[in-house]
Amino acid sequence: MQNTLIERLFWHTAERDDAKVADHLFSHKEMDTVYTLDEATLFDFFFHYLREIDVFCLLEDLDPQAQKRENIPFLQFVLVYLMKVIGSIPKMEPVWELLLTDELLMGLCGFNAYQVKNGSCERGTKLRKRPLPEVRGSICVDTLANQIVKITPRRLENFSTIVFRD
Length: 166
Description:
Blueprint: H1 5-9, H2 18-28, H3 39-52, H4 56-60, H5 74-86, H6 93-100, H7 103-108, H8 113-118, H9 141-148, H10 153-163
């Protein structure tokens, strides 16, 4: 029997309730586990959830296969863009500072520490008139934007049809 849309897409995040925690500690004197809910933990749980409900593989199918020199799998662009949307970052420019230079968050998207510090390629570095920043970020925001817009409306429609089917 197929799950309903609500059941399939239900993802419950933790809620902070300091009074309830204090009452529990006062009454029981112990807690089983305490979880932090920072950005990395949120996205780690979210990506795990997408795998659990079989949506992660559908994200891979969004690849328009239009990259001429593929040194970064398209899925990594999709994951960074998902972080932008879920993190409520309204424009592309803040993505560099908030996401692309964060080693932990980029690690969740498949980038390594070297790529975060030095960039994923040397393209354009020789043309720069200003010195390179200490942490370049895994990719530049222009590259992210230029790749994401290559997802065709038809691919998005197919993705939505599969994910939101009843």
